[in-house]
Specification:
- The complex is a heterotrimer of chains A (about 220), B (about 190) and C (about 260).
- Chain A contains 8 helices and 2 strands.
- Chain A is mainly α and about 220 residues long.
- In chain A, strand 1 and strand 2 form a beta hairpin.
- Chain A is flat and about 60 Å long.
- The model of chain A has no long low-confidence stretch (mean pLDDT about 85).
- Chain B is mostly helical and about 190 residues long.
- Chain B has one domain.
- Chain B is built from 8 helices and no strands.
- In chain B, helix 4 packs across helix 5.
- Chain B is globular and about 60 Å long.
- The model of chain B has no long low-confidence stretch (mean pLDDT about 85).
- Chain C is an alpha+beta fold and about 260 residues long.
- Chain C has one domain.
- Chain C is extended and about 85 Å long.
- In chain C, about 35% of the residues are buried.
- The N terminus and C terminus of chain C are likely disordered.
- The chains are: A mainly alpha (about 220), B mainly alpha (about 190), C alpha+beta (about 260).
- Chains in contact: A-B, A-C, B-C.
- The interface between B and C is medium-sized, with 19 and 22 residues.
Chain lengths: ~220, ~190, ~260
């Protein structure tokens, strides 16, 4: 088997996590944090970055050790590795940005059970080189962060009239408060999923049409 | 006593783990298409939560004050072990149920609701009894959410939903409306003088 | 891809020798790997903990000081006071973190003169538990300030108990006898608090929490003029345990000298 073009493949692994296999909108994983901490844009961004950090470090470590970890205990080992990095991230956030840490609350430790991270270890990092695993982690993590940022921004703009704390519409704006409350999270994500499904279908439709016409 | 009732009702209805805290969503969207399965998974969750609560109380009281940084790892290990244990017990006692639950039983380990239960219990400094009441209330709330969702989805299967919305999109919207409904429980305890 | 091929081979390459030896080797390997993983993980966690602990503690102590200084105007220094064996005593350096509800804070001005007590309290609100802290001047028997520390009330309505200046200003000189009373509309008496429009239940909760804390603490607090004196910090850091310690005891911040 010829060796793959490393730069091309690495790029592909990175990009897939951003759109085509976006963890939130396509794979529908990591729902709990996606809804719970996206009541403002900055919270969504912080959670995304923290998850990206844990995912990247865990993938690198798991991939480096992939030949040493026995199959029978692999899930436990992954969880120990992930929990370690989550604990480190929790401390770092608490020390560097206590206000954000307070907003995110218990959801930083809950990164441990984010299905995305364990899923990537099992599906990718344990079977691929460190470089590719890192790219995969960066892609998935960035895709996740992007999704959280989008969700958080929309909810904050509609529910509070601000973006990253900056008031957009002035004092007379009557905010759609439900958007920053739990029901708003569910509804907003449902609408976004709908939009993404629609866009996907339109793309498929146009590419099918193009193929038919070419034939 | 009043505080125990508040803890229970708060976890069950007012601050329902699923509709208010966004916990336990993976099984919520994954399993909740059959009513019977949803109910039994809910019960399994309650059981795991109760045991986790007990262990967390024990850890918090005796072991973790000496090494607070090990909290997360020790909780996760407890949860994974409990789920493994529950799996073995169910397999022996009721193989039919074991088969029905399938992959969702080991997935209780990654159910954020269980870990969140332990973390909330810690940050609110609940004692043993309070923790237990909290666990039963939270587990009951999860079961309630699962059962409600399953019932609605069973009905929805017979409806004419646009193809684009089928799947997770419509489930999100259903969940949103349920969450809205549960907001009505806020203030349940505050009317009394 | 070269790695796929790896996956299909057994993880443990046993020589032509012993199957039984392979079993034991396998188990030892599992134990060894998990132990190694545990050790490395522990090392990493403890390092991160040690590195970040000073900063985290400083942040928590700073947040607490800010709250206490807010509710006791004129305070420049503070110390923690614990109720033990029927007396209010100064928290010593070897104290375990006190149970929530068993300690208050004493505020003192730059010269060390007693200003008042800062009393933390909590109770159920409309949505979830409300945590607050209020300042009490025993000489005048008045509440002199109130700050909401944590709440999950309805944004825009109940949440105004935390940031509505009109609501807060009513706690700057509030009588506590016989107890604080919530009034819809406008109240005239010294112990009246006007509810926030549209947030009656959250406002009621705040008043209930304060009254309950008063009932618990006011009988215990020493008479005016007999408050515990500020213990000189002797250049060491003063012990201050934040109201709800999330992990463990937290040594206090600078004494300000």
């Amino acid at each position: 088997m010829s060796s793959p073009t490393e730069p091309g493949q690495a790029y592909a692994e990175f990009v897939k996590g951003l759109w085509k296999e976006n963890p939130t909108f396509v794979q529908v994983l990591g729902m709990c944090p996606a809804l719970a901490v996206t009541n403002t844009a900055v919270n969504g961004l912080a959670m995304g970055v923290a998850t990206l950090f844990v995912l990247l470090m865990s993938s690198i470590l798991v991939s480096s050790l992939r030949r040493l970890i026995p199959k029978q205990v692999r899930i436990s080992t992954y969880i120990v590795i992930i929990a370690t990095f989550v604990t480190v991230a929790d401390f770092a956030l608490q020390a560097a940005a206590p206000a954000v840490h307070k907003e995110l609350g218990a959801f930083v430790p809950l990164i441990v059970v984010n299905c995305i991270i364990l899923g990537r270890q099992e599906a990718f990092a344990s079977r691929n080189t460190v470089w590719l695993s890192a790219m995969d982690a960066l892609g998935m993590g960035s895709g996740f962060t992007g999704a959280l940022l989008l969700l958080g921004s929309l909810r904050e703009i509609l529910g509070k009239g601000s973006f990253f704390g900056i008031s957009l519409f002035g004092p007379h704006f009557e905010p759609w408060v439900i958007m920053i409350l739990p029901p708003g999270g569910f509804l907003m994500l449902g609408v976004l999923l709908l939009i993404f499904a629609w866009v996907k279908e339109r793309r498929q439709h146009t590419s099918e049409q193009a193929r038919e016409e070419a034939a | 006593m009043g505080q125990l009732v508040w803890i229970f009702v708060s976890a069950l209805l007012i601050n329902n783990f699923t509709f208010s805290y966004f916990l336990g969503l993976c099984p919520f969207f994954g399993v909740s298409s059959r009513l019977a399965t949803a109910f039994r998974l809910g019960l399994a969750n309650i059981f795991v939560m109760v045991i986790t609560s007990l262990c967390a109380s024990f850890l918090n009281e005796f072991i973790l004050p000496h090494a607070p940084y090990l909290r997360l790892i020790s909780f996760i290990v407890v949860i994974a072990s409990t789920v493994q244990f529950v799996e073995m017990v169910i397999k022996k006692v009721s193989p039919g149920l074991f088969r029905a639950l399938g992959i969702f039983l080991p997935l209780i380990t990654t159910n954020c609701a269980i870990l969140a239960l332990a973390l909330f219990q810690t940050s609110r400094s609940y004692g043993l009894l309070q923790g237990l009441v909290f666990a039963v209330g939270a587990g009951g709330g999860l079961t309630l959410a699962l059962v409600l969702m399953a019932g609605i989805r069973e009905e929805a299967e017979l409806s004419d939903i646009p193809a684009l919305m089928r799947g997770t999109a419509i489930n999100m919207l259903i969940a949103g409306i349920l969450s809205l409904a549960f907001m009505g429980f806020a203030g349940l305890f505050s009317g009394s003088a | 891809m070269p790695d796929e091929k790896d996956d299909q081979q057994p993880l443990v390459q046993i020589g032509p020798g012993g199957k039984q030896g392979g079993g034991l080797f396998e188990t030892l390997r599992l134990v060894f790997t998990l132990t190694l993983a545990g050790l490395l993980s522990g090392l990493l966690i403890v390092s991160a903990y040690e590195l970040t602990l000073p900063r985290i503690e400083a942040n928590q102590a700073a947040a607490l000081r800010k709250a206490v200084f807010e509710v006791l105007p004129g305070t420049k220094q503070m110390q923690q006071l614990i109720w033990r064996d029927g007396h209010l005593v100064v928290a010593g350096p070897s104290q375990k973190a006190p149970q929530p509800g068993s300690s208050v804070y004493g505020g003192y001005d730059q010269a060390g003169k007693f200003v008042g007590y800062a009393i933390p309290a909590a109770g159920p609100g409309f949505q979830d538990t409300i945590q607050l802290i209020f300042g009490f001047n025993p000489a005048r028997r008045r509440i002199v300030g109130m700050e909401v520390l944590e709440s999950r009330e309805t944004p825009g309505l109940g949440s105004r108990i935390a940031d509505d200046p009109g609501f807060h200003s009513q706690f700057k000189d509030l009588a506590v006898e016989p107890k604080v009373v919530l009034v819809k509309g406008h109240g005239d008496k010294a112990n009246d608090v006007d509810a926030i429009t549209g947030a009656t239940i959250s406002s009621t909760a705040v008043v209930k929490i304060i009254n309950k804390a008063d009932a618990t603490w006011l009988p215990k607090l020493p008479k005016a003029g007999q408050a515990p004196a500020l213990v000189p910090s002797k250049g060491k850091e003063r012990e201050i345990h934040p109201v709800k310690p999330p992990g463990g005891p937290v040594p206090g911040g600078n004494s300000g000298k």
